[in-house]
Amino acid sequence: MAERSAGLTFRAVSAKAESLVEGIRIPLDHYIDGRRVGSEERFEVRSPIDWDSWKLAEVAGGGRAQVDLAVAAARRAFPAWAALGPEGRHEPLTRLAEAIDAAVPDLAKVECIDNGSLLEAMQLRVLPRAANNVRFFADFAVERLDEPPRTLPGGERNRVRYDPCGVVAISTPWNAPFMLATWRVGPALAAGNSVVLKPPEWAPLTCSMLGDLAAEAGLPPGVLNIVHGTGAGAGAPLTGHRDVDRVAFTGAPTTARTVYSDAAANLTPVSFELGGKSPFIVFDDADLDAAAATAAYQYDNSGQVCLAGTRLLVARGALTDFLDRFAARVQEIRVGDPRDPDTTYGPLIHPVALERVTGHVERAIAAGAKLAFGGHSLGGLYYAPTLFTDIPAGAEILRREVFGPVLTLQSFDDDHEAIELANSTEYGLAATIFTGSERRADRVSAALVAGTVWVNCFYVRDLETPFGGARDSGIGREGGRHSFDFYCDVKTVCERTALFSR
User: Fold this and answer.
1) How far apart are CA 315 and CA 25, in angstroms?
2) Active site residue 112
3) Tens of pLDDT along 73-99?
4) Which of 47, 214, 256, 467 is a good FRET partner for 84, with 20 to 30 A between their CA atoms?
């Protein structure tokens, strides 16, 4: 008998340990202590490309028992992995990066089918970043983590140590599951910790493949463990586990509050990257062609990008010219099968996501917002690019994250009003500014509540710089040394060296 939970179908069946997707072997069980471990419960995974008819797999549905096994394995593996030091860990992590590089073609095919992202984007941009996430932090730990000691006025020597913290629990989202998993697995492992990773239940397949890549690279058993399942089934026992030393979570603020509560019971430090309702500000001195092209790109991945600038804020004097250019760019968008190179964006991830987007659109119309274009399904899980204008102040569509191809448009008269509109949500993840004035860019960037501000560009990342959000968009910063601040126990050693005998 099937049981439905959180949009998933569970069945108690004999485990099929693997499935073939486009001829690529996908392991479907947990990866614990260097081996595959099954579960009696399985959950069904379908492709959003053709949800009704394309069943991909039945994946192991983990619970407290599998989480306990994985955390115990991670705890056993931790001392030896930590003792290797950054130099000793560098070689296996470099091999892991190389294994990911070699697997990009297969990973791209699987992730495209599993979550509906563009195949070309996966191949050329997103998944190559996964290997770089591992490689960068392995290199950084060796080359740049040690700080030079300081001598105090009394002659004492101060040193800063970045010691591994222990077992790290990582929960990754479904919109770029493999790459975003490595964004946190990379620094956690490079710091000397062991990891338990929970993949997203809506798109778990490439994260499951990461276990085999880790084994191929020679990571010791237990250093990286993978437990599949729902947030309630596997996520809650993991983030609330007494033997977990750090919790890193990417997802929605509502879920993060539950995770925070679970971690707080053990005073476990957390790092959260959550939702966004980011402003995209176009001033009247901007390059309007560049601004319009970048604004149309906010529909990328069917709007399922937390960093997307979904609130277009345009100077009143530039509004007509911008809209003409923007509408022309939107006309070039082609929604369809993400494997087709002519497709601009593919489907929403899941029927629950389609229901959420449809609900936001219907409520916006009921609140009095004007639908400029879109606002309807294209069949299946495909949704038309949508824009709302003339929106009542305080409307939900201006305040809450839709996570779909839905943008809003507001105008402003001066810099002060632009900043006020930009900061008028509960979020603070990112912001984008288009202006021809460097002074204005600096002044407005300083006033915005956002973890990242792009000026005359978008979606550019430097792994060394801090990344994170404010307000409901997250807690903490990661990137470069900031990642090691979180994934390490940072301590100060103060030594009176004159008393050393040798």
Assistant:
1) 52
2) no
3) 999 999 999 999 999 999 999 999 999
4) 467
